[in-house]
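Our platform keeps sequence and structure together, in a single record for each protein. Such a record has a labelled line for the sequence and another for the backbone structure tokens. This encoding replaces a full spatial description with a residue-level series of whole-number codes. Below, we set out a record of this kind in full and without editing:
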Amino acid sequence: MAGFAALMAIPLAMAQQPLAPPLPPPRPDRLPPPVVSEPRAEKPLPNETVAARKSDPAKERAEEACLDRLKQLGLKFERRPPVQESSCGIENPVLVSGLPNGVGVSPASLMGCPAAEGISRWLGEVVIPEAERQLQSVPTKLLIGTSYQCRDQRNGEKLSEHAFGNGLDIMGLEFAKRAPVTIGKHADNAPEAAFEMSIRKGACPIFNTVLGPGSDADHGDHLHLDLRQRKGDYRICQ
């Protein structure tokens, strides 16, 4: 019995012993290595974005050639960075302040290079010769109402060519030794009316759209000239 009592006392004694103290935290130099996450792969750009970032040598050559022609024609202009505004924009914009033969542009107007070339051709091939022939004078300034402007057509169906720097609204011209000619502001039988009609018709081979007084109510006080591309090279001359 004494032996049995001794055996029973052993677990009791063990239970009464204090628990072993907790182990200290591992030393800093023995910490487990940090988990390094793999870098996330960048989301691929849409095909359109990638294509837009790639240069187009042919397009760049065409833009440079247009700028060279402006210099040869004698325009006074500043090259500007591409314009992007919502769905509007100009890829090769120039700020034109002067045309050949010392003709100023008021106000200086932002437009695409092709529109600048077109207005220069129209001035040199049509406006100046007709002014000398019919008004015995030469223009000194071209008055522009609207050049680049991010807006729809007046009927709201689509963007205007002004939204791409392809459209110009001509309000009139100033001359050296005579009164200005304001579009749509003279009698039908006046020399200014014949001059206006001549330069309007002369714009049709150069621009794809020519609208002015009599074409509709919106163009009663200016000539609208633009380079809108249409199927079959269709043009509007009204």
In short: DSSP finds five helices and eleven strands in the chain. Helices lie at 2-16, 47-53, 57-73, 113-135, 191-203. The longest helix spans residues 113-135. Residues 1-54 have pLDDT under 50 and may be disordered.
